[in-house]
Amino acid sequence: MTNDKTLFLDALPVMQQLTDHGYEAYFVGGSVRDFLMGRPINDIDITTNATPDEIEALFVHTIPVGKEHGTINVVWNGINYEITTFRTEGVYLDHRRPSHVSFVRDLYQDVERRDFTINAIAMDQHFNVLDYFEGQQDINNQLIRTVGDPHARFEEDALRILRGLRFQAQLGFTIDTQTYNAMAERAADISHLAIERIMVELEKLLNGAHVIKTFTTLADLHIWDHIVYFKDMPMKHIQISSPVTLPQFLAIVMYQSTQSVKTKQLKRSKDEIKHAERLLRAVQEVLTLTSKQALQQFVYDYGLALCNEILAIQPLLQENNIPQPSALLFNGQTITETWNTLSITNRQQLAIDGKMLISAFDKKAGPWLKDALRLAECAVVQQQIANDKQEIIEWVRANVKIS
Ligand code: ATP
Ligand code: MG
Q1: Residue to mutate (ligand 1; options 36, 119, 132; most atoms within 8 A of CB)
Q2: In sequence order, what E strands does 18-110 have?
Q3: Any idea which positions bind Mg(2+) (predicted)?
């Protein structure tokens, strides 16, 4: 495995600017962990003893994203670096937020407040590693272990329970026994967390390469019982053995549920929820396809991307006992061919619109119009008639009740 230093080398001028002015600066967190593991690195986090004001004074382009907590973003060469002042955290309130943070001048205190040993490794600009909590050993042993007493750390911030599970799903590591037992004991505290924070970790977890293992752990720890929405869903009947996106997961959960539980509680974007619901509808409808015309209509209505998404999650649907369409009718080739030979791919391409129908029939707009347009659209899509204005009008005259 190669350890790619490029992103760290890009960040060196930022580090140097800090160290040239007498401050300490270290790479820390996920980037160091992933680098040491030879995994691709996401964003680079830097920790320093410079205060937020001191950081702002040293760089031209800064954004005070979380200044009161010590975080300033520095933009350098178009790249965003999150720089955080060494800090400790005061007592925790409600298992989710510290009463205050205090800036400190010592790296040790900063890494001591971090969640897991593998996330508490610091690295200086010469690639020297400072590892106070045997994080490298845990990387080698593939262990997820809290920094310090797991009970206390989870009691402070219950999100760490989900984060630990998320790292298990992403890295395939084992959760250290004491850490695991503390997770089990403190799982109920998850209910105190903001759902937005839960969902960030959950989305990463579901997408993790090792989600198969973690999904079982979630059930063992009764995690779902403490999360809004999911606690009302039949989570025991759901299996996830390969990475899924959040909308795909939600579609499967909704499929299995006999009652409608408000997805609003999850506080995700409208687009995302809509996508999940659309996928659910498509999964239900795809089963009813029996003819070439029906396939044309389906591919037109849902689009090629969604059809391919259904194909991509077939194993997942199967393991959840969700009936599948015949592979003869619905496969990569048939949907692509169908899409490529559609006479129109959206309503705008239809040779007729509402205004034309109104004038052709000399009728006021009314419910008939919507019906006529949809029926004409289907007739064109299913190639019963050509996409031709006159032909469509004649077809509507003969086939649609205009009242
Ligand atoms: P990713 O690669 O997904 O960004 P990450 O480990 O960098 O993973 P972040 O959420 O970006 O995770 O957090 C950066 C670092 O901040 C973590 O590595 C950890 O050291 C610390 N950290 C984040 N959240 C917590 C928390 N709830 N409690 C303690 N430390 C935390
Ligand atoms: Mg990170």
Answers
A1: 119
A2: 25-28, 45-48, 62-66, 71-76, 79-85, 87-89, 92-93, 97-98, 101-103
A3: 43, 45
E runs forming strands in 166-247: 174-175
**Looking at domain 1-141, what is its CATH homologous superfamily?**
Beta Polymerase, domain 2 (3.30.460.10)
Residue 63 three-state SS: strand
CB atoms within 10 A of CB 401: 7
What SS3 class is residue 26?
strand
Torsion 272-274-276-282 (CA) sign: negative
Residue 123: its H or E element? strand 122-123
Q: Is 157 annotated as a binding residue?
A: yes
397 is in an annotated binding site: no
Starting from the CA of residue 198, give the closest ligand.
1
Q: What is the atom index within ligand 1 of the atom nearest the CA of 157?
A: 27
Reported as a single tens digit per residue, the pLDDT across 143-185 is: 999 999 999 999 999 999 999 999 999 999 999 999 999 999 9
Q: With respect to CATH, is domain 347-399 assigned 3.30.720.210? A: no
| Residue 27: closest CA among 96, 104, 98, 121 | 121
Whole-prediction pTM value? 0.92
Quick check: 39 pLDDT over 90?
yes
- Tokens 């999911």 -> residue: 230
Widest CA span in the chain: 85
Q: Which tokens sit at 15?
A: 């580090």
Number of helices and strands (H, E) in the chain? 18, 13
- Whether residue 113 is annotated as binding a ligand: the answer is no
Is residue 121 within 8 Å of 129, Cβ to Cβ?
Answer: yes
